[in-house]
Specification:
five-stranded mixed β-sheet, OB fold (Dihydrolipoamide Acetyltransferase, E2P), CheW-lke_dom, six-stranded mixed β-sheet, alpha+beta, about 270 residues, rod-shaped, UCP020479_CheW, single chain, CheW-like_dom_sf
């Protein structure tokens, strides 16, 4: 824009000079006197001086503009290069913060695992019936809804390489039932030779639809229970096979699914 203005000014000066000296120029052309030659030379010198002055101003303005651009652009480029350099630098991680966050997550997961509620069973809604049975002076109850059946204990074929609490396999109407020595499984720390000799298993309690059956000496009875009659196990942890304790009878209510899972894995209550 400044270059254009300078050019306009030069043209204005040039046109003004031409307009003011027009009669003289005409006279010079027509008369061609020595005075006219001198005047023409003077006019040409003035015009050249104006053009030279305009060119110097234009060059000066261009030089100033270049310097201004350099001053303006240089910091921007420097800042951009600095930003790129900082962007390529590896981020410094605060190890303390990372350790604290990892510790918090591990603690939260451990707390969630500890406080994880046991899955709700169907018998946890309202009243339910339970079958009570005894073995070695211990009373145990099983929810009727998770009772697979009751059989008279028959001949058991022992198998090699099985846990001590695994008595063997009993055939019942072409069904192979895995027989559990319940006393040895439930209280291995108290199971000794004397208890083994005194035990007189009579029945097999089938666990739900599995092939597992636990032995008992006698069937006590079935009782109708309210939810408040049982001190329920609130969180998963030790003794997952225990759904709770029936307060009045002071006996264990079996979590059948959890017990089946342990038996399938070859584990007893010490697991």
């Amino acid at each position: 824009m400044s270059n254009l203005n300078a050019s306009h000014k030069v043209m204005q000066h040039y046109l003004s000079a031409l307009l003011t000296e027009e009669p003289v120029i005409k006279q010079t052309v027509s008369e061609k006197t020595p005075e006219a030659d001198v005047l023409a030379k003077q006019q040409q010198q003035q015009l050249n001086a104006l053009l030279a002055q305009a060119s110097q101003k234009e060059l000066l303005q261009v030089s100033l503009q270049n310097k201004l651009i350099e001053k303006t652009v240089a910091p921007v480029i420097t800042n951009k290069q600095t930003a790129n350099l900082l962007a390529t630098q590896p981020e410094v991680i605060n190890a303390t913060v990372v350790i604290e966050k990892v510790t918090e997550k591990v603690t939260e997961k451990a707390a969630e695992k500890t406080l994880k509620k046991a899955p709700e069973k169907e018998y946890r809604k309202g009243r339910f019936q339970a079958l009570f049975f005894q073995l070695a002076g211990l009373k145990i109850a099983v929810p009727l809804k998770e009772l697979g059946g009751i059989h008279k204990l028959g001949h058991v074929n022992s198998l090699i390489g099985k846990p001590e609490w695994f008595k063997g396999v009993m055939l019942y109407r072409e069904q192979k039932i895995n027989i559990v020595d319940t006393a040895r499984w439930v209280m291995p720390e108290k199971y000794d030779q004397q208890m083994q000799q005194q035990l007189d298993y009579q029945y097999v309690i089938m666990l739900a639809n599995s092939n597992w059956g636990i032995c008992c000496e006698s069937l006590v009875n079935t009782f109708m229970l309210e939810q408040e009659d049982v001190q329920w196990r609130q969180v998963e942890g030790k003794r997952p096979w225990m759904a709770g304790v029936i307060k009045e009878h002071m006996c264990v209510l079996v979590d059948v699914d959890a017990m089946i899972d342990l038996l399938n894995r070859g584990l007893d209550i010490t697991a």
